[in-house]
Amino acid sequence: MELRRVEELMDLLHACRGARGTACLGGAPVDLHDHALQTAALLRRSRPADKELQVAGLVHVVGQLLRPGDLTGHADRAAGAVGPLLGERVSWLVRLHREDRMHEPVMDDPVMEDVLLLRHADESARTAGLDAGVLEDWRTVLELVSTRHARLGAVD
Ligand SMILES: [Fe+2]
Question: 32, 98, 109, 141: which could form a disulfide with 16 (CB 3.0–4.6 Å)?
Answer without folding.
Answer: 32
